[in-house]
From TrEMBL, chain A:
Pfam families: cobW (PF02492)
SUPFAM superfamilies found in the cross-reference section: P-loop containing nucleoside triphosphate hydrolases
A single MF term (Gene Ontology): GTP binding
Highest taxon of the lineage: Bacteria
Disordered as annotated region, ranges: 223-258
Protein name, per record: Hydrogenase nickel incorporation protein HypB
CobW/HypB/UreG nucleotide-binding domain ranges (all copies): 34-195
Family according to the record: Belongs to the SIMIBI class G3E GTPase family. HypB/HupM subfamily.
GO biological process: protein maturation
UniProt keyword terms in alphabetical order: GTP-binding, Hydrolase, Metal-binding, Nickel, Nucleotide-binding, Zinc
UniProtKB/TrEMBL annotation, chain B:
Gene: hypA
Binding site for Ni(2+): 2
Keywords: Metal-binding, Nickel, Zinc
Function recorded in the entry: Involved in the maturation of [NiFe] hydrogenases. Required for nickel insertion into the metal center of the hydrogenase.
GO molecular function: nickel cation binding; zinc ion binding
PROSITE patterns: HYPA
Protein name listed in UniProt: Hydrogenase maturation factor HypA
Classification of source organism: Bacteria, Bacillati, Actinomycetota, Actinomycetes, Kitasatosporales
InterPro entries: Hydgase_Ni_incorp_HypA/HybF_CS (IPR020538), HypA/HybF (IPR000688)
Sequence similarity: Belongs to the HypA/HybF family.
Binding site for Zn(2+): 73, 76, 90, 93
One Pfam family linked to the record: HypA
Amino acid sequence: MCKVVDVRQSVLAKNDHLADALRTELTARGTTVVSLLSSPGSGKTALLEQVLARMGVRGVPVAALTADLATENDARRLARSGAPVKQVLTGGLCHLEAAQLRAHLEGWLPGDTRLLFVENVGNLVCPASYDLGETLRVTLMSVTEGEDKPLKYPLAFGLAHLVVLTKNDIADAVDFDGAAFTAHLARVNPEVPVLRTSVRTGEGVQALVDHFLAVADGAVPHRPRLASAPRGGAHAPGGTGGHHHDRAPAPAPLTSHQ
Amino acid sequence: MHELSLATAIVERAAETARRHGATTVTAVRLRVGEMAGVVPDALVFSFEVAREGTVLESARLVVEEVPARARCAGCAADFAVGTPPFLWCPRCDRPAQALLSGRELEITGIELQEAET
Ligand SMILES: Nc1nc2c(ncn2[C@@H]2O[C@H](COP(=O)(O)OP(=O)(O)OP(=O)(O)O)[C@@H](O)[C@H]2O)c(=O)[nH]1
Ligand SMILES: [Mg+2]
């Protein structure tokens, strides 16, 4: 006999619920998660090195987790700041998921961490779909990548709470068209704040640090328009609401490293 | 290629539903995919064919319904098509959209089962 079961289940529900739980739990204990997303080589690690160092000077307890397909290079670079750092090897996976992040935080993340930075795998496509429990999602792009990237990767740029334009020291050398970039970005993410940075000249690094500290102190991040749409499932308008059995049980609280 | 992760999640969900209903075979899974879901439907169908192997979905079809992205204007309250790449400004008022109403769906809406004969 044939039968059709009507369901309304978001395919990403499991990840979304886990991410939400992680955000709630970490926020309650005073930790704010900042995620960094960009194509390979945009300068995520280089910028993070300087941010971690400045946080250290100010005595703000921070930690960083960096994801790559292979090598521990990024963790080694970040660890020079003295902050707790962890490398996640995704074993070929093109993005981080909330469950993976949670498993890596378990027993490692120091309890007094104010800001946890998560550097995603260099990729502008796949990571965009996965909520990691971050309060601030930063999408970076270097001036060498071309002004049209916000249009080619609308989710990565459209879901960002903050956009950072890196390597601004070489903007003139590559004829970067700032006006075109701003127009393209505004098209997919109206009113998103943008910071221009350079690790060579130090431009913008302090402004970035200040932005992170403000968010850790409770400043409300920008609201991307694309983030407002329902992803489907029981929470969607008109949803049947009767499918809570496929909700993952709440995980046990994270234990922290002292 | 996160489509393979998504296809695997779809297969797991459908297999779980089949188990709950005591069904031996899933014949089809219906899916709504938004224009701005960050998913390529063809890549998803291809990944589904890989992910279903050796499961109760072995012969199941993936039926994809695409959902256009629409946004609402904060000024005139009209809805408008966002297009691809998205343009999140009202074509009438030239003001930023208030919210995206649809287009990010990635939702299983129906699972067709073959129930065991009793
Ligand atoms: N001129 C200049 N070069 C930079 C800047 N930031 C980073 N770079 C260089 O860009 C290259 C890549 O930087 P990374 O920090 O490794 O980039 P990433 O985004 O972490 O790369 P993946 O983790 O592999 O995705 C390195 O050679 C850096 O020295 C900058 O502000 N100016
Ligand atoms: Mg890096």
